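Methods: example folding runs. The two proteins below were folded one after another, and each record is reproduced exactly as written to the output file, sequence line first and structure-token line second.
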Amino acid sequence: MTGAVDEPIEVFLSYSHADEGLKTELLKHLGSLRLDSRIKVWHDRLVEPGSRWASDIDTHLRTASLVLLLISADFLNSEYCYSIEMKHALQRHNNGSAIVVPIILRSCDWQASPLEKLQALPADGRPVVDWPVRDQALAGVAQAIRARIEQMTGGANQAVCLPEVLIPRRSLRIAELQFLLIPQGVFPMGSDGHYAHERPMHPVLVSAFFLGTTLVTNRQFAKFVDQAGYLTGAEITGFGTCLADERPVAMKNANWRHPWGSGSSVVDKNDHPVVQINWHDASAYAQWVSSVTGFHVSLPTEAQWEYAAAGSEGRIWPFGDKYDATKANLEGTGTSPIGMYDAHARGAYDLAGNVYEWCQDWFTDGWRDGGHLLDGSLTADPTGPCNGTDRVLKGGSWLDAAEHSRCANRMAGRPDICSVNWGMRCCLHLDGRLMDALLSNSDWEMTSTDYDAVPGRR
């Protein structure tokens, strides 16, 4: 699967002919990789006259190192694309002889297919046609593919080999992000004594994972923007959301660099959490971290976030069942630097206050709609509904009162909206590749029997 540096990677492109136009647009964005002979793309329009097309497709599908599946309802409804090309590609992906990347072109229920276990592009799985600027979505896809090609060929941006151990069996650093191990456990999710959409409290099992020790800062986000050439939603539309008398107002030229509009700046706030990023921006940052490190980084699910904050005992606030105004940046006037307040829970900062944090899940008023069991049975690793109109935000912010910083508090936010008090934190998945990296490092003090049940363990 790994080719020599001077040999192009063979890329097989599987798509429905109903998506011919979008395929052509994608190929334009991959143009520099093709012209530099970094990749050699093949698709069925290249079948030679007089050739047996099925045989040609099979040959190239067997030899390609990278398979791009262009997903739409037409693709999923195509017997040949779905049952033959996709099935064959996934077999090669599972045996390690090729890499399969789904690219979501148009809205469809692709999560109901075997593809739901794969990281999709664009960064958050948002369909290409749903982006305000389609070229931005396709440019992000091309950037992620370029990073993958560099990993496969040993290019300059090859993934970090090993995470740096900070505290054995507890915390590590990958690139410039620090993560805490959150061991597997059961906790009471939700609340019976507060808002209706938090009810009822019910037992949830969360598998082991790593949570970002801190919120993502302006300095960290700036590195992503500079290296990826990324434009946030607010920079594209020219508007962000600010607050006047605690009410949201659209502010011209408000974005992550200028949180309160043209007269503001983050120049002296490198260690403050980044704000004015929407859910798509947050997901794109996590995907970029994945591409440059080689490990699976994403936004945490709501269950992961709440479990890390509340613990197995189900604390009301991350710092305990008694509210303490000195423990969090709440009811204030703006963001504070990370680490200014004492660490909460197992050592994470700002799980209450400072900024609301985007989660992976779609928001739902009812737990059942998100796959939760409410009959006393244990719900394992819920990921929320398959679709919706809003995403989950957790943790409260510098603006909010104590009530909104409870672990069980949950807020809904449109994924294309950003705000001066909304930010993000990353989650690092304990998959087979990370397990192997930790097992190979004696400083982590792990044995092969510790995490044998981890999904993807080789």
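Second run, written to the same file directly after the first:
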Amino acid sequence: MKLLKNNTVLDVNINKSLSAAEVESLIYDLAELRAKMTPEVPMSRPIPGSEEAQENILMQDEPAIITKLLKDGNIRFWLRSRGLGWLVFNFTVSQSITLSDFFIANTPDEDGNTSFFSEDGGNSGSTH
């Protein structure tokens, strides 16, 4: 595999059977190369079902999540995707506080209400 044309095209040649471990390695290698390609992945999220959304958005209910407080105060999130394996994200303290506020504001209480921030329950749009 190699990047061509100013990192806008990836040349790939696969013609063999792959084990699960080999597929994981291939996905990792492809992701590493994609990170170097242009255009880069947009910072804004695609909205599933919209015309702008790519057809290959992976969605999964109830992923496995493991978190760890790092020495620098950041939070490490390990998220398990059935197709991509384990993904690791390191969140800054500010990002962690924002996530905490969001989860608290949007987690229903025992009566099913989410009324932490506003009358509409703090909902920021439809859930995905």
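Comment on the second run: The chain has a mean pLDDT of 84.
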